Amino acid sequence: MEAGGRGMGLKLHLVTKHLAIQKGERKMEKKIVYVDMDGVLADFDGAVEALEGAGNEGPLDEVEGLFLDLDPLPNAIAAFHTLAEKYDVYILSTGPWNNPSAWSDKLLWVKKHLPELGTKRLILSHNKHLNAGDYLIDDRLKNGAEKFTGELLHCGTEKYPDWKSVLNYLM
């Protein structure tokens, strides 16, 4: 009876030690930050305004090639680099369903503007809430952003009007 008791104590000690090691390893992992592309990294609104000014009508997010030539928003690329120093950073974006070129254009945009840091860090999804992470930086409350289980930093709002405010909070 006594031997069984000691064996159980040893097992409990090993399990406790294992859990403590796991907790320690978790503390060393970087937190995950997802950054939306359109309206956060890239100037989607500026591109749409240019299309409207040129007389285009209809769903402008369905214009082929629109997402390929978006300009980066001010300070966005530098902010992505800054976040990558402290966090595990991914681009989490949505491509319009009726614009297949948007999906490949977004990949090419990342390769152009974030060639090293963006490599294999682009996630395209209509269900952003399915991604597990600590923070989502997004300008809209659609495509699952409103249901994200981590903390949503809603860009373009009074609390987070620009990249400076986002970095002040996260860094």
Task: Please name the defining characteristics of this protein.
alpha/beta; 5 helices; 171 residues
Please mark out the parts with pLDDT under 50 across 5 or more consecutive residues, or reply none. Answer: 10-22
| Strand order in the sheet with the most strands | 3-2-1-4-5
Largest sheet: 5 strands, parallel
Structural class: alpha/beta
Helix content: 40-55%
Helix count, per DSSP? 5
How much is the average pLDDT? 87
Return Rg in Å: 22 Å
Give the N-to-C terminal Cα separation: 56 Å
Strand content: 5-15%
User: How many β-strand stretches?
Assistant: 5
Order of helices and strands: HEHHEHEEEH
Described by the principal axes of the CA atoms, the overall outline is globular
